[in-house]
């Protein structure tokens, strides 16, 4: 009777009741894998006699009960922090449980926030797609990205995702999109801004308008004819070419708007059609032709205030197909505030009176 009693008392103590949960690594960071191992030190080679199950906060993990004493978790996140343990079930359906282990998953704060553009360099053609890419060098968990326009910080969009990069898209870039931009990223440790990025929207030139200005209503040989060409729309700098019967007379560059002018001393061969061309490297546009007919030399009894003679000089046209090539230009005259018009159609005498010193030929607006 006594031996049997001793056996009953000893039986629970002799069962492989020592069960350990091993966590590797013991202090995981977000996004990293973790391996849980249910180990029975007292049994070295008979683990196959058991089935194992792993738990977190009373919830079974993975496939539930299995013969494997290990559970691989591919990615641990902040919300996976909690109390973990494992259980082993014997062939006799006896269940053993390990001690609980607290696992705290550490979040890495975002750092080194940057803003890049596609296309690169911050220059985009009008009408094309523009993408602002916000990136962080490090950071884990859900990251909130915010995009801002202008130094005052107009919020354009907010995205929260488990990624180190996020994109904000402008499907069709417009002139009003030319501005400074920046982005902000944060994952619970405070916002981190990027630097400012300037966006330039490149605009092709519109069809230019050609104006011819002479010192009298009927130009004569010896007069100085002023040709003024201007594209009302287009990114600068703009190079203007002047033509007489499709023969190049010269060129002039306008770095900041207002068009360009070219002075021509008339000879008997200068009757005919004039035109100009504007080009800013995004495509050339040609003006309508303007016809100029004139007579012989002016009378010596009719002295005329002469316009300044062209002053030849050289200027590098950066948008030329051959960068650095010097192109001849001429000194521009100050632009007049009001003009009269005479070309294929002549304006009224009232308009002529506004410019008693000369006369102008110009193309009509489309």
Name some characteristics of this structure:
single chain, 366 residues, mainly beta, 5-stranded antiparallel β-sheet, 2 helices, 31 strands, 5% helix, rod-shaped, disordered C terminus
SSE inventory with pairings:
Layout: H1 2-14, E1 20-24, E2 34-39, E3 51-56, E4 59-60, E5 70-73, E6 82-89, E7 95-97, E8 101-103, E9 111-118, E10 123-125, E11 130-138, E12 143-149, E13 154-161, E14 165-170, E15 180-186, E16 192-193, E17 197-198, E18 200-202, E19 209-214, E20 220-221, E21 224-230, E22 238-244, E23 247-254, E24 260-265, E25 272-279, E26 284-286, E27 290-292, E28 295-297, E29 312-316, E30 326-330, H2 349-353, E31 359-362
Subcellular location: Cell membrane
Signal peptide: 1-16
Membrane topology: Single-pass type I membrane protein
């Amino acid at each position: 009777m006594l031996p049997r009693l001793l056996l009953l008392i000893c039986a629970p103590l002799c069962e492989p009741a020592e069960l350990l949960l091993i966590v590797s690594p013991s202090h995981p960071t977000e996004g990293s894998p973790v391996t849980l191992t249910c180990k029975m030190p007292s049994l070295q080679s008979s683990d196959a006699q058991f089935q194992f199950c792993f738990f977190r906060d009373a919830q079974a993990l993975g496939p539930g009960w299995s013969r494997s004493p290990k559970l691989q978790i591919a990615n641990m996140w902040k919300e996976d922090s909690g109390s973990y343990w494992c259980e082993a079930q014997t062939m006799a359906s006896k269940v053993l449980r390990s001690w609980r282990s607290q696992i705290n998953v550490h979040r890495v704060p975002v750092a080194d926030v940057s803003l890049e553009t596609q296309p690169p360099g911050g220059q985009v053609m009008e009408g094309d797609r523009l993408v602002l890419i916000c990136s962080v060098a490090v950071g884990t968990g859900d990251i909130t990205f915010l995009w801002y326009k202008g130094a005052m910080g107009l919020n354009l969009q907010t995205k929260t995702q488990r990624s180190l990069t996020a994109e904000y898209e402008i499907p069709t870039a417009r002139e009003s999109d030319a501005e400074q931009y920046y982005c902000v990223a944060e994952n619970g440790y405070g916002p981190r801004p990027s630097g400012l990025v300037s966006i330039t929207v490149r605009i092709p030139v519109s069809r230019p308008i050609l104006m011819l200005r002479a010192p009298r209503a009927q130009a004569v040989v010896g007069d100085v004819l002023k040709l003024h060409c201007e594209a009302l729309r287009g990114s600068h700098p703009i190079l203007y070419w002047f033509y007489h019967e499709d023969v190049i007379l010269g060129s002039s560059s306008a770095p900041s708007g207002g068009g360009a002018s070219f002075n021509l001393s008339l000879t008997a061969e200068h009757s005919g059609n004039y035109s100009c061309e504007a080009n800013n490297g995004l495509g050339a546009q040609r003006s309508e032709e303007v016809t100029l007919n004139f007579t012989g030399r002016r009378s010596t009894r009719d002295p005329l205030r002469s316009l300044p003679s062209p002053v030849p000089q050289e200027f590098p046209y950066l948008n030329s197909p051959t960068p650095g090539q010097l192109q001849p230009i001429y000194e521009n005259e100050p632009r007049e505030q009001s003009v009269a018009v005479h070309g294929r159609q002549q304006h009224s005498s009232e308009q002529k009176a506004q410019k008693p010193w000369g006369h102008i030929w110009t193309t009509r607006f489309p």
